[in-house]
Amino acid sequence: MRLITHNMLSCNIKGVANGFPLKIEAESVIEKEVDFNPDFLRHMFAKIEWKALVEAARSLGYSELPEDSPAAAAEDESLLKKLHHALLELHLEEGALVCPETGRRFPVTRGIPNMLLHEDEV
Amino acid sequence: MWFLCVFYHRLLDFRKPEVEALAELFGEDESLLQWRLPEHHHNDTPFHFVHLSSEEIARNIAKRSILVKGMYELWGQGSSYEELKDSIQTFPDSRKLPFLAPDSTFRISVETFGKALTFDEQRERINSLTYIPFQGKVNLKKPDHKFFIIEMDESEENNGLQPILQRRIFFGREVGFADRKLLPTFQLKSRTYLGPTAMDAEMAFLMANQAKATSGKLVYDPFVGTGSILVSAARFGAMTMGADIDIRVVRDGRGPDCNVWSNFKQYGLPMPVALLRMDNNLPPWRSGLKEIFDAIICDPPYGVRAGGRKSGGRKILRGTVDPYTVPEDKRSDHIPSTGAYSLVECVHDLLHLAARMLVMKGRLVFFFPVLRDENGSEVKFPEHPCFKLVAVSEQILSSRYSRVLLTMVKVEPYSEEVEEAARLMHLEFRENHLKWLEEGNIHSSVFKPSDSCQVHTDTKSFKDPKPKYRGKYV
Ligand SMILES: C[S@@+](CC[C@H](N)C(=O)[O-])C[C@H]1O[C@@H](n2cnc3c(N)ncnc32)[C@H](O)[C@@H]1O
């Protein structure tokens, strides 16, 4: 699971109000190189919850992202590179996403988050 | 500029929409694109004239398309070779001479539709063109310019088309043609990980074209299965993302080298940005997330073979008010039971997802099952205030059932007011659909694997009420 995915997901158990961002429990993290596509990153930058991304990257051991959402990221090549690395090249292979409100763990196995709810959660 | 657009004689309903979608992709002005039929031709003919603003756009469309056999600059046409000659001679020299220059190479080929010509007959036709001042050298293998004589007879027996009243001959310069070499490379037979409802390669590419998948775009399939639709989008350069409720399909596959990932690896395509397990009835997208996907393409789970499931099944099945509680010790590896997912609900969720998550002008491309109407009653397709339906392409599966590929474009941003209008539209659709369901349980019968070859052979064996005209089966 890449951090772009993490940035899109929340805990949607019935009644949960603050299911985002999910905390990351990392057991196994890997890095894979991906082609750099600035257009795609510019599009994504506008959609990203910056704070959640910074936090998530840190929990996978990457702390190069600036704390505050950069104003002109779209023109800043070196920042786009960092964003690229954080969003697309870091993978949570094994671990879990944990709901900040209820503590419910959504397991991530072989890179696939299991976001399906139990019968009593819907 | 008018071009002669010659199509493959298959998937007839998909042909013009493909060209239209690609025209938009390559930046054609929507209001400029026009279609015209040759004299006496019926809409199902392989020959159409299309108006586009440049040769470059025509070439790009043809190259990327699956169903365009060729795009030609038309130099002349007629119902006989004499008429053809007159017509070519009136085509302006300024348009002809640049392609006839002495330092260029060329080739002339003869194409026929619904008839075969011997080698001698072909040569005779080519030799009749002496009135065109070709100065270049002939090069059969790699010519600079390719010219075509395209001939079609009035006989209708061989081609399954409605009768054309008149013989037609075209002469033109090729501008571009489809790269169908993609199809053998991507055919399902060679796919490592396959499921019963994997989308056949040709259809998957057509879907990706309807979705205008291209580099820098993000394409999502909420019912990803083995990923066959996303593979085609990735082949066209798009980033992909997929989800499925079935963890065995989306994560496990048949082992480490036979799963959704390996289907991308096999062709050297970039891996999906994400694969997830989730229920599209209760998607876990964070509430503030909007307009993130450029296209959503899918074959939703209608019917028995890949029956739709959704979470919370036990509750529904038992009909109890008390929630079923998963025992603490079983929670971690618990496999939630799932309930049936009706077509109406599935379509509702899909439209809702698309309304919220597609960028403006983003495209939703999906299959929808229909009962073939014998009495001409109109099929009601699902509607949503955020979407405009831009293409409807029917693929006939049997004497009773078809599936229709719907292409919708997001024309209104998603908002609270829209939500209410959408709810009303949905209720109406639901009511219509329930009425219609009483006539036959369609969504349990329609969805079969979409192998077009199979569909093709099937159609020969069943008794069609109108056996003579089989246009839409091809
Ligand atoms: C017709 S198949 C699509 C097959 C896919 N195009 C492929 O290439 O294999 C429908 C898929 O939807 C999944 N599905 C069924 N109900 C679902 C739900 N509620 N949410 C998400 N996926 C679901 C099924 O597991 C199945 O894989």
CATH class of chain A: Mainly Beta
Please tally the β strands of chain A and state the result.
4
Helical coverage of chain A, percent range:
25-40%
Radius of gyration of chain B: 25 Å
Q: From the coordinates shown, what is the CATH architecture of chain A?
A: Single Sheet
Total domains of chain A, how many? Answer: 1
How much of the sequence lies in strands of chain A comes to: 15-25%
Instruction: Say which molecules are bound, naming each kind only once.
Output: S-adenosylmethionine
Number of helices of chain B: 15
Protein structure class of chain B: alpha/beta
Oligomeric category: heterodimer
What is the architecture of the largest domain in chain B at the second tier of CATH? Answer: 3-Layer(aba) Sandwich
EC number (chain B): 2.1.1.214
Main location (chain B): cytoplasm
Domain Ribosomal RNA large subunit methyltransferase K/L-like methyltransferase (chain B): 190-311
GO biological process, one term (chain B): methylation
Written description of the protein model:
The complex is a heterodimer of chains A (122) and B (474). By secondary structure, chain A is an alpha+beta fold. Chain A has helices spanning 3-6, 38-45, 50-59, 77-89; strands spanning 23-31, 90-98, 105-109, 112-113. The mean pLDDT of chain A is 94. Chain B has 474 residues and is of the alpha/beta class. Chain B folds into 2 domains: 2-180, 2-Layer Sandwich (VC0802-like), CATH 3.30.2130.30; 184-447, Vaccinia Virus protein VP39 (Rossmann fold, 3-Layer(aba) Sandwich), CATH 3.40.50.150. Chain B has helices at residues 12-25, 55-64, 81-90, 93-96, 119-127, 182-186, 201-210, 228-235, 247-252, 260-265, 313-318, 343-357, 416-437, 442-445, 452-461; strands at residues 2-7, 34-36, 47-51, 68-78, 105-113, 137-138, 145-152, 168-176, 218-221, 239-244, 274-277, 293-298, 309-311, 338-340, 358-371, 387-396, 401-410. The structure holds S-adenosylmethionine. Residues 195, 197-199, 222-223, 225-229, 243-246, 249, 279-281, 299, 301, 306, 308-310, 341 of chain B line the site of S-adenosylmethionine. S-adenosylmethionine (SAM) is lined by residues 195, 197-199, 222-223, 225-229, 243-246, 249, 279-281, 299, 301, 306, 308-310, 341 of chain B. Chain A: Interacts with TRM9. Chain A: GO terms for molecular function: methyltransferase activity; protein heterodimerization activity.
